[in-house]
Amino acid sequence: MTKRILLYATLAAGAFISVFPYLLVVLTAFKTQGQLNSTAPWLPGLPPTTDNIAEMLAGDFPRFILNTALMTAALTAGQLVFTTFAAYAFARLRFRGRDVLFWLYVATMMVPSAVTMIPLFLIMRELDLVNTWYGLLAPYILGTPYGIFLMRQFFKGLPAGLEEAARIDGAGSLTILLRIMLPLCRPALGTLAIITVISSWNSFLWPLIITSGDDTKVITVAIATLKQGIGVDYNLMMAGSLIALVPMVAVFVFFQKHIVRSVVLTGLK
């Protein structure tokens, strides 16, 4: 009984530490400036106000939400399509240098993304793609090393007899991929889609570097720009953070079984 009590106490403490920042976001978003200065951060402001959220929604913030949604949808679609084709080629097709090329590509995961930001920006500047949708999407829409690695490992785990039987019946590589392999890869595709949606929605550094106008600004950059000036309006920042948080909470509520399965499948924390 003592061990069980200690276990649940530890789990409760970890859950509280994880949830507490989100609680502060909600409480601060519904406070006035006076309530923020007169009450403790972990206490609600009475009476609560929705003026901060209304002010954010009345401005350009809805446009930034739409920009983020479009970017997320485009990157997710691109990842699923191009990553699947590349992974199938690395897993099933035979060509010279296949394994060497694959492991060289996967080795780029060891390089921090911040290291490649400046070279990517210089390339986009030479191509005149700075502050454009093409520049925002180009580095990641054609697939990522992690996505290709995940799908390749899943393809390699499928029985080879299915593909051999299809080839005996006269099916080509494209037919095998679309009609046999893809229906079996739904768990991996769901995992890749969830990871891509979350990472794209929360992306900050690359959009901050490559975009400067409102036409391509995403919500993470929009929230960060609220810190510019003499003072910082934490009420508006937390209201914007709360609005940005709602879609991800909805994704978790509706796809929590798939998210748990993706954690099991990939080993991610």
Automatic annotation (TrEMBL):
Q: In which compartments does the protein localize?
A: Cell membrane
TM region(s), chain numbering: 7-30, 64-90, 102-124, 136-155, 236-255
A Pfam family hit: BPD_transp_1
Q: How does it sit in the membrane?
A: Multi-pass membrane protein
For this UniProt record, the keywords arranged alphabetically read as follows:
Cell membrane, Membrane, Transmembrane, Transmembrane helix, Transport
Classification via PROSITE patterns: ABC_TM1
A biological process (GO) of this protein is: transmembrane transport
Q: Where in the numbering of this chain does the ABC transmembrane type-1 domain appear?
A: 65-255
Entry-linked InterPro entries: MetI-like, MetI-like_sf
Q: Which GO terms describe its cellular component?
A: plasma membrane
Predominant location category = membrane
Q: Which PANTHER family match?
A: ABC TRANSPORTER PERMEASE PROTEIN MG189-RELATED (PTHR43744:SF12), ABC TRANSPORTER PERMEASE PROTEIN MG189-RELATED-RELATED (PTHR43744)
What the record says about family reads: Belongs to the binding-protein-dependent transport system permease family.
Q: What is this protein called?
A: Carbohydrate ABC transporter permease
